[in-house]
Amino acid sequence: MRRTRMEAHLEILKILAQKPATKLTELMYETNTNCSVLKEHLKFLIRKECILEQTLKNKSIVYDISEKGLMVLKHFNDLETILSTNKPQAIKLQTKL
Questions:
Q1: pTM, full prediction
Q2: CA–CA gap between residue 23 and residue 26 (Å, rounded)
Q3: How far apart are CA 40 and CA 59, in angstroms?
């Protein structure tokens, strides 16, 4: 089954949260995504300031999650937890009379 863009972005963020300073090839293997598609996802996440691209002294390029990326991941995990609980959530709705 094909992943949505959001699922792909979240998977990249999860990997970078667990493995800082990850190279492109490792991300390709971890996400099972081809290079051109992965680069599109990385460009998007860089533009949104969710990940950082760094060039090391040996000219290798690595990717790292940013504070904003960690915040996005945390909010998504919180939402996933809320939606997956079996208990009904008490929600107060304002109604117009």
A1: 0.82
A2: 5
A3: 21
